[in-house]
Structure formats: structure tokens, C-alpha cells
Amino acid sequence: MTIHPTAIVDPRAKLGANVSVGAFTVIDGDVEVGDGTRIGHHNVITGHTRIGRDNRIFHFVSLGEANQDKKYQGEATRLEIGDRNTIREYCSLNRGTVQDRGVTTVGDDNWLMAYVHVAHDCVVGSKTTIANCTQLGGHVQVGDWATLGGFTGVHQFVKIGAHVMCGVSSVVLMDIPPYVTAGGNPLSAAGINAEGLKRRGFSAGQIATIKRAYKTLYRSGLTFAEAKIQLGEEALAAPELKILADFLDASTRGIVR
């Protein structure tokens, strides 16, 4: 373990093997950091925050600070970060609220670029890419493998499905179903993320099935309720459609149409 002499680390903090802490970083007592995580300079890690192993946290990052919910009264809520994430400069990840899950969660193998904000009670999956200056409001959910372009703003309680590609400077006020490419302000859908699916090993047949599902949802003239029923039936024979059908059933804000 390597701790720069100017860093301030509470003796109660739990730091794993081979953790490094840069100059002028502050780590409070309720923080846990897993093996092999590297923490840069001028960071503040506070609150009940647990960070997994082999993460790379760059400089001027704020982790586990009190959330920005006006109802917050200092309750002991949490921030949990998984393994092998890259968190670039000036990111801020706040802890949760008792009105919701009580924890903000980030999975594994994510790439959070500079100035990204993850607000209270968000759930970020694994293998996502969240580009510079993207802002996630409270209670947002982002599925595995999703990519959010720079300067994207995501309204609180919005759900973004797995394998979504969201364009630069998008304003996301409604849910984006899995596999969909969307962008703009107002936000609109523009097909499926076929190139991303190819890179992740989806077969030509699976991609064709997903394209047909997109047409059912967006091009068939069916109502949202009718399309949900049809896709739910199709998912029984096509496992790749199950996450789409489940997402549509769980949507509370409506989907981008």
C-alpha cells in the first residue's frame, strides 16, 4: 500500500492490498477500498462508501458525498462501486436516500469520463461508457453495455436499457428500451445499436430478431400496450427479447417514441 504523505486517511478506513493514494486526497473513516485500486491526487472519498478492486480513480473526484436531495437529513446512506472501473477527473458520485434504495450503485468495468455526475440512488450496470459532462439525475437506471454521449442530461427516474447507444448532447426525459439508438432534443429513436451488438458477439440471427422487435415497437402502428403484448409473446421463443419485454413492463415514464 502506498499513501502519499500529504494524503489524509482516517485510521478507521479499510484499504486493501496494493492500494495507492495520491497527494492531498482525503479518505474518511467509513470508506472501504478493495485491493489494487489506484486513487489519484486531490480526491475526496467520504460517507459509507465501498469501492471494489482494481479501480482507477483519477484526480479531483468526489465519491460518497451527501446527496443533493432537499429531503436529505444526514441519514447513513451508501455508495457502492464495483471492480475495474475507470473514473476520470472531476466526476461526482453521491450516496443514496432513505426515500429510495438508500444506496447509489455502480457495477464493474465501467468507463466514466471527466465531469460525469451520478446522483443519489442511481443504478449503473456494468461495461457502460458514460462520456464527458453527462449528468444522471436521481434514481436513474443505466443497463449493461449502454453508451451515453458527452453532455447528455438524464432526467430523474429515467431508465436506460442494456446496449443502448445515446447520442451526444441528448436530453433524456423518457425511458430508452434495450438495444435502441437514440439522440437529440427532443429525443428520438433511430434504430437499433447493431454495430455494438456485433462487437459483443450477437449472431446475425439474433440481430435480425431484435430489428424485427424494433419495427414492432416503432413502425407497426401498434399501440404501446399492444406492442408490449406481442413482444412478450415473441420473447418466449427468443431469449434475446426477454430483457426488452421485461424493460417495457417495468417502464413508468413511458418510452422514447
Describe the structure.
The protein is α/β, with parallel strands linked by helices and 257 residues long. It is elongated. It has four helices and 28 strands. β27 (180-183) and β28 form a beta hairpin. The chain has two domains: 2-139, Hexapeptide repeat proteins (UDP N-Acetylglucosamine Acyltransferase, domain 1, 3 Solenoid), CATH 2.160.10.10; 196-250, Udp N-acetylglucosamine O-acyltransferase, C-terminal domain (Udp N-acetylglucosamine O-acyltransferase, Domain 2), CATH 1.20.1180.10. An eleven-stranded mixed β-sheet has the order 1-4-7-10-13-16-19-22-25-27-28. α3 runs antiparallel to α4. Helices cover 16% and strands 28% of the residues. The chain has helices at 194-199, 204-218, 224-235, 242-250; strands at residues 2-3, 8-9, 14-15, 20-21, 26-27, 31-33, 38-39, 44-45, 48-51, 56-57, 62-65, 78-81, 86-87, 92-94, 103-106, 111-112, 117-118, 123-124, 129-130, 135-136, 141-142, 147-148, 153-154, 159-160, 165-166, 171-172, 180-183, 188-192.
Task: For this entry, give a set of tags.
single chain; 257 residues; alpha/beta; UDP N-Acetylglucosamine Acyltransferase, domain 1; Udp N-acetylglucosamine O-acyltransferase, Domain 2; 2 domains; eleven-stranded mixed beta sheet; 4 helices; 16% helix; elongated
- Backbone CA Rg: 20 Å
The CATH superfamily of the largest domain turns out to be Hexapeptide repeat proteins
Distance between the termini: 51 Å
The averaged pLDDT comes out at 98
The geometry reads as elongated
Read across the widest sheet, the strand sequence of neighbours is: 1-4-7-10-13-16-19-22-25-27-28
Count structural domains. Answer: 2
CATH architecture of the largest domain: 3 Solenoid
Percent helix, as a range, is: 10-25%
Strand content: 25-35%
Number of DSSP strand runs:
28
Low-confidence region ranges: none
Structural class by helix and strand composition: alpha/beta
CATH class of the largest domain: Mainly Beta
- Biggest sheet character: 11 strands, mixed
Number of helices: 4
Task: Tell me the CATH topology of the largest domain.
Answer: UDP N-Acetylglucosamine Acyltransferase, domain 1
